[in-house]
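This protein record is not my work; I was only asked to verify it. The record follows directly below this note.
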Amino acid sequence: MGDPVAPVRSRLETTLTLLLGFGLAIGVFLYEGGFRGYDRSPELVVATLAGTLGIVSVVWYVGYIRAHELTGWWLVALLVGAPVLLFSWKVGIGAMFDGGDRWWPSKPGLKCLLLSTVDGCSILAALLVTRRGSISDHPLAAGAAMGIAAGALAWVLVDLWCPVGHPEHVLLGHVLPMLILAAIGAWPGGRVLRPKPGSVEK
């Protein structure tokens, strides 16, 4: 497995870049209304958020911190496992509460698709910038992993905004954006992560 190549961004630069990316995503989330409980019970909101944060924490570590090590089956496991776990948790928890998984005809998932993608792109851009030119081995795979990590982080915000737990809605509005972000991370992102010709590995 290849390690990132030097120079790695300073901690301050990395922190500020990540804060900017996350801040923009949170800004969009707040602009669109922030948390919207609708008729979700506090227990449903807390249970969904707790499990989601647990899953996202693992995805963040694997998909960003260890992105340069992900190849083969490990990458497949992240690309498939993260969306499946998040989908299963949201739909499963929703089914345990009255109306938590009902279909909303007025909310098919298109707004969530757009919000998830916009928030995810803001976060993904920050992740890629902090690691630009620093991954020599399998940068496309690393970029895809970061796309999934960004999508998972965006999922948290959109889940707070969206009251719908119906499987079809979640697939379109919450899962599909993660796959879109993985594709963005893999191709354009992989080019950003790849060291420039003539750079020296350390």
Q: What stands out?
A: Helices lie at 11-31, 42-65, 72-95, 110-130, 139-161, 167-186, 188-193.
